[in-house]
Specification:
With 274 residues, the protein is α/β, with parallel strands linked by helices. It is 36% helix and 20% strand. Residues 9, 11, 13, 77, 81, 117 line the site of zinc ion.
Length: 274
Protein backbone atom coordinates (compact mmCIF):
# COMPACT_ATOMS: atom_id res chain seq x y z
CA UNK A 1 0.00 0.00 0.00
CA UNK A 2 1.38 3.46 -0.88
CA UNK A 3 2.64 5.44 2.07
CA UNK A 4 1.77 9.09 1.55
CA UNK A 5 2.25 11.48 4.43
CA UNK A 6 0.66 14.89 4.84
CA UNK A 7 2.40 17.50 7.00
CA UNK A 8 1.85 21.19 7.64
CA UNK A 9 4.58 23.59 8.76
CA UNK A 10 2.86 25.90 11.24
CA UNK A 11 4.69 29.22 11.10
CA UNK A 12 4.30 32.89 10.25
CA UNK A 13 7.51 32.95 8.21
CA UNK A 14 6.62 33.93 4.67
CA UNK A 15 10.02 33.90 3.01
CA UNK A 16 13.65 33.36 3.73
CA UNK A 17 16.77 34.07 1.82
CA UNK A 18 20.48 34.12 2.60
CA UNK A 19 19.82 32.98 6.12
CA UNK A 20 17.35 35.75 6.76
CA UNK A 21 13.81 34.98 7.84
CA UNK A 22 11.06 37.30 6.81
CA UNK A 23 8.11 37.07 9.11
CA UNK A 24 4.69 38.42 8.30
CA UNK A 25 3.78 40.85 11.06
CA UNK A 26 0.83 39.99 13.27
CA UNK A 27 -1.38 42.79 11.94
CA UNK A 28 -0.85 41.80 8.30
CA UNK A 29 -2.07 38.24 8.47
CA UNK A 30 -5.06 36.73 10.22
CA UNK A 31 -3.47 33.36 10.90
CA UNK A 32 -6.52 32.08 12.78
CA UNK A 33 -8.67 32.65 9.72
CA UNK A 34 -6.24 30.82 7.45
CA UNK A 35 -6.09 27.99 9.98
CA UNK A 36 -9.89 27.71 9.93
CA UNK A 37 -9.76 27.49 6.16
CA UNK A 38 -7.14 24.72 6.37
CA UNK A 39 -9.13 22.87 9.00
CA UNK A 40 -12.22 22.94 6.79
CA UNK A 41 -10.19 21.46 3.93
CA UNK A 42 -8.79 18.74 6.21
CA UNK A 43 -12.24 17.88 7.53
CA UNK A 44 -13.84 17.72 4.09
CA UNK A 45 -11.18 15.35 2.83
CA UNK A 46 -10.78 13.52 6.15
CA UNK A 47 -7.04 14.04 6.33
CA UNK A 48 -5.22 14.19 9.62
CA UNK A 49 -1.78 15.76 9.11
CA UNK A 50 1.24 16.15 11.34
CA UNK A 51 1.80 19.80 12.26
CA UNK A 52 5.43 20.88 12.58
CA UNK A 53 5.14 23.82 14.93
CA UNK A 54 7.52 26.77 15.01
CA UNK A 55 7.74 27.54 18.72
CA UNK A 56 8.07 31.32 18.33
CA UNK A 57 4.77 31.21 16.42
CA UNK A 58 3.33 28.99 19.16
CA UNK A 59 4.20 31.67 21.72
CA UNK A 60 2.08 34.14 19.76
CA UNK A 61 -0.81 31.74 19.15
CA UNK A 62 -0.94 29.50 22.27
CA UNK A 63 -4.67 28.77 22.01
CA UNK A 64 -4.39 27.71 18.40
CA UNK A 65 -1.45 25.43 19.13
CA UNK A 66 -3.33 23.78 22.01
CA UNK A 67 -6.23 23.21 19.64
CA UNK A 68 -3.90 21.72 17.01
CA UNK A 69 -2.32 19.36 19.54
CA UNK A 70 -5.74 18.18 20.72
CA UNK A 71 -6.71 17.06 17.24
CA UNK A 72 -3.51 16.29 15.39
CA UNK A 73 -0.09 14.72 15.54
CA UNK A 74 2.63 17.31 16.25
CA UNK A 75 6.37 17.87 15.96
CA UNK A 76 8.75 20.80 16.27
CA UNK A 77 9.99 23.06 13.47
CA UNK A 78 12.64 24.79 15.69
CA UNK A 79 12.30 27.92 17.79
CA UNK A 80 12.45 30.77 15.31
CA UNK A 81 13.32 29.29 11.93
CA UNK A 82 17.05 30.07 11.89
CA UNK A 83 18.68 27.83 9.33
CA UNK A 84 20.62 25.11 11.12
CA UNK A 85 23.84 25.70 9.21
CA UNK A 86 24.08 29.12 10.89
CA UNK A 87 24.27 27.38 14.30
CA UNK A 88 27.14 25.71 16.10
CA UNK A 89 26.18 22.25 17.32
CA UNK A 90 25.74 23.62 20.84
CA UNK A 91 23.49 26.46 19.64
CA UNK A 92 21.48 24.00 17.60
CA UNK A 93 20.93 21.78 20.62
CA UNK A 94 19.83 24.76 22.73
CA UNK A 95 17.42 25.97 20.04
CA UNK A 96 15.95 22.50 19.69
CA UNK A 97 15.53 22.03 23.43
CA UNK A 98 13.88 25.44 23.75
CA UNK A 99 11.46 24.66 20.94
CA UNK A 100 10.53 21.28 22.43
CA UNK A 101 10.07 22.70 25.95
CA UNK A 102 7.71 25.42 24.72
CA UNK A 103 5.51 23.03 22.75
CA UNK A 104 5.45 20.36 25.46
CA UNK A 105 4.56 22.86 28.17
CA UNK A 106 1.83 24.35 26.05
CA UNK A 107 0.25 21.14 24.85
CA UNK A 108 1.16 18.56 27.49
CA UNK A 109 2.16 16.27 24.62
CA UNK A 110 5.56 14.67 24.11
CA UNK A 111 7.46 16.03 21.10
CA UNK A 112 9.55 13.41 19.32
CA UNK A 113 9.35 14.54 15.68
CA UNK A 114 11.41 17.20 13.99
CA UNK A 115 11.60 19.18 10.77
CA UNK A 116 14.47 21.60 10.20
CA UNK A 117 13.70 25.11 8.90
CA UNK A 118 14.17 25.14 5.14
CA UNK A 119 15.33 21.49 5.34
CA UNK A 120 18.67 22.87 6.53
CA UNK A 121 19.89 19.98 8.65
CA UNK A 122 23.42 19.81 7.33
CA UNK A 123 25.39 17.03 8.96
CA UNK A 124 25.38 13.84 10.96
CA UNK A 125 26.88 15.41 14.11
CA UNK A 126 23.90 17.79 14.24
CA UNK A 127 21.56 14.85 13.91
CA UNK A 128 23.04 13.30 17.05
CA UNK A 129 21.58 16.28 18.91
CA UNK A 130 18.13 15.19 17.78
CA UNK A 131 18.55 11.96 19.71
CA UNK A 132 20.06 13.84 22.69
CA UNK A 133 16.85 15.86 22.83
CA UNK A 134 14.41 12.96 22.54
CA UNK A 135 13.62 13.21 18.82
CA UNK A 136 13.00 9.81 17.24
CA UNK A 137 11.71 10.73 13.79
CA UNK A 138 13.11 13.35 11.43
CA UNK A 139 11.38 14.78 8.34
CA UNK A 140 14.11 17.21 7.22
CA UNK A 141 16.30 15.55 4.66
CA UNK A 142 15.92 16.06 0.95
CA UNK A 143 17.97 15.32 -2.14
CA UNK A 144 17.21 18.86 -3.42
CA UNK A 145 20.29 21.07 -3.76
CA UNK A 146 20.02 24.22 -1.68
CA UNK A 147 22.21 27.27 -1.44
CA UNK A 148 23.34 26.06 1.97
CA UNK A 149 24.52 22.80 0.42
CA UNK A 150 22.19 20.35 2.04
CA UNK A 151 22.44 17.36 -0.26
CA UNK A 152 21.59 13.96 1.10
CA UNK A 153 21.00 10.51 -0.27
CA UNK A 154 18.68 10.10 -3.24
CA UNK A 155 16.62 7.47 -1.45
CA UNK A 156 12.90 8.06 -2.05
CA UNK A 157 11.79 5.85 0.77
CA UNK A 158 11.84 6.05 4.59
CA UNK A 159 15.23 5.01 5.95
CA UNK A 160 17.16 4.75 9.20
CA UNK A 161 20.33 6.66 10.02
CA UNK A 162 22.83 5.07 12.36
CA UNK A 163 24.36 7.69 14.64
CA UNK A 164 26.84 7.36 17.48
CA UNK A 165 24.08 7.66 20.06
CA UNK A 166 21.26 5.78 18.37
CA UNK A 167 19.14 5.44 15.24
CA UNK A 168 16.98 8.19 13.72
CA UNK A 169 13.97 7.28 11.58
CA UNK A 170 13.98 9.47 8.51
CA UNK A 171 11.05 10.42 6.26
CA UNK A 172 12.71 12.35 3.41
CA UNK A 173 11.07 14.92 1.16
CA UNK A 174 9.95 13.47 -2.17
CA UNK A 175 11.40 14.75 -5.44
CA UNK A 176 11.28 13.93 -9.13
CA UNK A 177 14.25 13.79 -11.48
CA UNK A 178 14.55 16.37 -14.24
CA UNK A 179 17.63 15.52 -16.28
CA UNK A 180 20.13 15.04 -13.45
CA UNK A 181 18.43 17.40 -11.00
CA UNK A 182 16.21 16.47 -8.06
CA UNK A 183 13.21 18.76 -7.94
CA UNK A 184 10.60 19.08 -5.22
CA UNK A 185 6.86 19.20 -5.92
CA UNK A 186 5.13 18.31 -2.66
CA UNK A 187 5.04 21.61 -0.81
CA UNK A 188 5.69 25.35 -0.66
CA UNK A 189 6.55 27.23 -3.84
CA UNK A 190 7.14 24.00 -5.77
CA UNK A 191 3.60 22.82 -5.07
CA UNK A 192 2.15 26.21 -5.99
CA UNK A 193 4.23 26.50 -9.16
CA UNK A 194 3.34 23.26 -10.97
CA UNK A 195 0.01 22.51 -12.62
CA UNK A 196 -2.05 19.93 -10.75
CA UNK A 197 -1.80 17.45 -13.65
CA UNK A 198 1.96 17.25 -13.11
CA UNK A 199 1.64 16.89 -9.32
CA UNK A 200 -0.95 14.16 -9.82
CA UNK A 201 1.28 12.39 -12.34
CA UNK A 202 4.32 12.37 -10.04
CA UNK A 203 2.24 11.45 -7.01
CA UNK A 204 0.73 8.44 -8.76
CA UNK A 205 4.24 7.24 -9.62
CA UNK A 206 5.34 7.15 -5.97
CA UNK A 207 4.73 4.52 -3.35
CA UNK A 208 6.13 6.86 -0.69
CA UNK A 209 5.50 10.61 -0.55
CA UNK A 210 6.08 13.39 1.97
CA UNK A 211 3.89 16.48 1.53
CA UNK A 212 4.75 19.72 3.37
CA UNK A 213 2.21 22.50 3.03
CA UNK A 214 2.25 25.85 4.86
CA UNK A 215 -0.79 27.83 5.94
CA UNK A 216 0.60 30.69 3.83
CA UNK A 217 0.46 28.44 0.73
CA UNK A 218 -3.35 28.63 0.68
CA UNK A 219 -3.79 32.28 1.70
CA UNK A 220 -4.00 34.63 -1.28
CA UNK A 221 -4.89 37.61 0.91
CA UNK A 222 -1.39 38.31 2.14
CA UNK A 223 0.05 41.77 2.47
CA UNK A 224 2.84 42.77 0.11
CA UNK A 225 6.26 43.06 1.71
CA UNK A 226 8.15 45.83 -0.03
CA UNK A 227 11.62 44.80 1.17
CA UNK A 228 11.47 41.46 -0.67
CA UNK A 229 13.52 41.09 -3.84
CA UNK A 230 11.61 40.29 -7.03
CA UNK A 231 12.61 36.59 -7.09
CA UNK A 232 11.48 36.27 -3.48
CA UNK A 233 8.18 38.05 -4.20
CA UNK A 234 7.67 35.56 -7.00
CA UNK A 235 8.56 32.56 -4.87
CA UNK A 236 6.24 33.76 -2.14
CA UNK A 237 3.15 34.40 -4.24
CA UNK A 238 3.43 32.11 -7.29
CA UNK A 239 0.32 29.98 -7.80
CA UNK A 240 -1.21 31.12 -4.53
CA UNK A 241 -4.65 31.78 -5.98
CA UNK A 242 -5.10 28.25 -7.30
CA UNK A 243 -3.31 26.48 -4.42
CA UNK A 244 -6.43 25.74 -2.38
CA UNK A 245 -8.18 24.11 -5.33
CA UNK A 246 -5.04 22.16 -6.16
CA UNK A 247 -4.72 20.99 -2.56
CA UNK A 248 -8.36 19.88 -2.45
CA UNK A 249 -7.87 17.87 -5.66
CA UNK A 250 -4.72 16.27 -4.28
CA UNK A 251 -6.36 15.27 -0.99
CA UNK A 252 -9.35 13.99 -2.91
CA UNK A 253 -7.35 11.90 -5.39
CA UNK A 254 -4.89 10.32 -2.94
CA UNK A 255 -4.93 8.97 0.57
CA UNK A 256 -2.66 10.63 3.12
CA UNK A 257 -1.76 9.79 6.71
CA UNK A 258 0.19 11.59 9.43
CA UNK A 259 3.77 10.80 10.44
CA UNK A 260 2.69 8.83 13.53
CA UNK A 261 0.43 6.53 11.50
CA UNK A 262 3.16 6.01 8.90
CA UNK A 263 5.61 5.29 11.71
CA UNK A 264 3.35 2.58 13.13
CA UNK A 265 2.61 0.95 9.78
CA UNK A 266 6.17 0.74 8.50
CA UNK A 267 8.31 -2.23 9.38
CA UNK A 268 11.40 -0.17 10.18
CA UNK A 269 13.61 -3.24 10.41
CA UNK A 270 13.14 -3.67 6.67
CA UNK A 271 13.98 -0.06 5.77
CA UNK A 272 17.51 0.83 4.59
CA UNK A 273 20.02 1.57 7.36
CA UNK A 274 22.60 4.19 6.45
ZN1 LIG B 1 9.41 26.55 7.75
Amino acid sequence: MPQRIFTIDFETICAFSNNQNIELPYHLWDLEKTFEKMQAILETHQVSPTFFILSSTAEKYPKLVKQIAEHYDIGTHSYNHNLINTFTIKEFSQDLKKSIDIIEQLTGKKVNKYRAPGFSLPAIDYMEQLIENGIETDCSLTPINHFYGNKTTNLQTPYRIQLKNGIIKEFPITTFKFFSKNIGFTGGGYFRLYPYSLIKHFTSKTSYLMAYIHLSDIEPNQAKIKELSLPLQFRRMVGIKSAERKLRNWLNDFEFVDVETANETINWEEQPLL
